[in-house]
Amino acid sequence: LICIESDAPVSKALQLMKEHGLLSLFVTKNEQFTGIVSIYDIMTFVAFGAFRVDGTVTYTALDTPAGDIAGTHEETRQVWCYEAAEPISATMEALSKGVHRVLVKLHDKGPDGRALYKVVTQTDIIAHLSRHAGEHKASGCDPDVTKDLEELQLYKEGSTVLTVPSTCTALEAFRRLEVRDHTCMPIVDEKGAVITQISASDLRGLEEYDLPKLTTNVLEYLRFRRGGRLTHPVTCAKHTTLEDAMLKIAAAKVHQVWIVDSAEKPIG
Question: pTM for the full model?
Answer without folding.
Answer: 0.89
